[in-house]
Amino acid sequence: MTAQDSATQSLAIAPERPTPAPGARAADDTSGRTGSSGRAGSSRGTRSSGGTRSFGSSGTVLAGLGVLSFSFSFPATAWALTGFGPWTATGLRGVLAGLLAALCLAAARVPIPERRHWPGLLVVSAGCVLGFPLLTTLALRTSSTAHSAVVIGVLPVATASVAALRTGRRPSRAFWGAALAGAAAVLAFTLMQSHGRPTGADLYLFAALLVCAAGYAEGGRISRELPGWQVIAWAVVAALPVTVLTTALALPAEPSHPGAKALVGLAYTAVVSQFGGFVVWYRGMAAIGVPKASQLQLAQPLLTLVWSVLLLGEELPAAAPVTAVVVLVCIAVTQRARS
Predict the structure, then answer these.
(1) Which residue positions in the chain have pLDDT lower than 50?
(2) Residue 165 CB-density burial (10 A; 0-12 exposed, 13-18 middle, 19+ buried)
(3) What is the reported pLDDT for 194?
(4) CA gyration radius for the chain?
(5) Cβ(339)–Cβ(175) under 8 Å?
(6) At 146, which helix (H) or strand (E)?
(7) To 10 degrees, what angle do helices 33-71 and 22-31 make?
(8) Whole-angstrom distance, CA of residue 211 vs CA of residue 49
(9) CA-to-CA distance for 293 and 10, rounded, in angstroms?
(10) Are 70 and 282 in contact (CB under 8 A)?
(11) Which one of 49, 52, 228, 290 is most buried, by most CB atoms within 10 A?
């Protein structure tokens, strides 16, 4: 019930009391219930205005931290693939993340979500816990980390589109214009790198971004009702039956030679990419909205390009600096545009 509704109900029952003289009534309202309510309302309004700005700023920071965390995911996956097969790496990643999430939920004594939340949680589970990790891992067998990162650069537009269809919100034209410009920049970059011909790995990546966009959008929506860390925690726990089965079938079928680099990569994808990064990411989306938060991800492929050079020794494409400038401008425009 809003404050306005409460005030309306108070005014509705006020005539039941004896009606004082106009001057006395005004004095009573000023020093008594109505006056106190007015001061409290004014105080709440002041705090709400400042609190909204503060919450929005912190939401941007949290979403940005999520993007930074995810920008290491592809290099970490490439490291994991040096010692594990793609199905084994995906299964172990989900199992480890699920066990960590289950421990956190148990330690915090979190109750099981209401039935109305489970359809959305299963979408998050299917898209972000199962689909995206598997499809991108399969793609990284034949595609470079840098190339894969740029293809996934269209994820923000896909996320914003799914969120708009799901929630009925309609971002402004300036927002869409900047978002589409950023997506066009990363797509042009991708086509330049692949000589205009999408590869099989690109098809895996495009499928991955579609299922991930659905998971991001649904997770951001549920995070308005449940804490962000609980959203991803329940999603990875819900996926445990599938990830355990995948691991059990893949381990004996795929050769494994886990070295230090493979173990570090696997640990990062499980602890950060699959769980910790989502905690801050979903909280940020809940604070500033799915469309604006998703546009921060336009910076993710560029960050991954840097990590691919520093951590994997890949060559940085010559067009990367130009793409970086275009993407950063698009981020600035989308963050200023009202959704």
Answers:
(1) 1-52
(2) exposed
(3) 67
(4) 24
(5) yes
(6) helix 145-151
(7) 40
(8) 36
(9) 40
(10) no
(11) 290
> Running DSSP on this structure, what letter comes out for residue 115?
G
* CA dihedral over 324, 327, 331, 333, signed as positive or negative: positive
- Inter-residue contact 291 to 337 (CB < 8 Å): no
pLDDT digits (tens, 9 = 90+) for 89-99: 999 999 999 99
Question: Which residue is associated with the tokens 């894969």?
Answer: 148
Tell the burial category of 334 from Cβ atoms under 10 Å away from its Cβ (0-12, 13-18, 19+).
buried
- Say which residues have a Cβ less than 8 Å from residue 179's Cβ, sequence separation at least 6: 156, 157, 160, 171, 291, 295, 330, 334
Quick one: tokens of 46?
């002041």
CA dihedral 51, 52, 54, 59 (to 10 degrees): 140
- 130: DSSP letter: I
Chain centroid, CA 288 distance in Å: 11
Residue type, 333: V
Give Dmax (Cα) for the chain: 90
Cα separation, 272 vs 276, whole angstroms: 4
Q: Which two tokens stand for residue 264?
A: 């570090």
- ∠190-195-198 over CA atoms, to 5°? 60
Q: Which residues contact 34 (CB under 8 A, 6 or more apart)?
A: 10, 28
Q: How many other C-beta atoms lie within 10 A of the C-beta of residue 316?
A: 13
Cα–Cα separations (whole angstroms), residue 327 to 73, 99, 192, 267, 314: 20, 37, 16, 30, 21
Q: Please provide residue 172's backbone torsions phi and psi, each rounded to the nearest 5 degrees.
A: -70, 165
Whole-number Å distance between alpha carbons of 219 and 50: 27
What pLDDT score does 244 carry? 97
What is the distance between the alpha carbons of residues 319 and 317, in angstroms, rounded to a whole number?
A: 5
Six-digit token pair at 248?
Answer: 């059990």
Which amino acid, one-letter code, is at 312? L
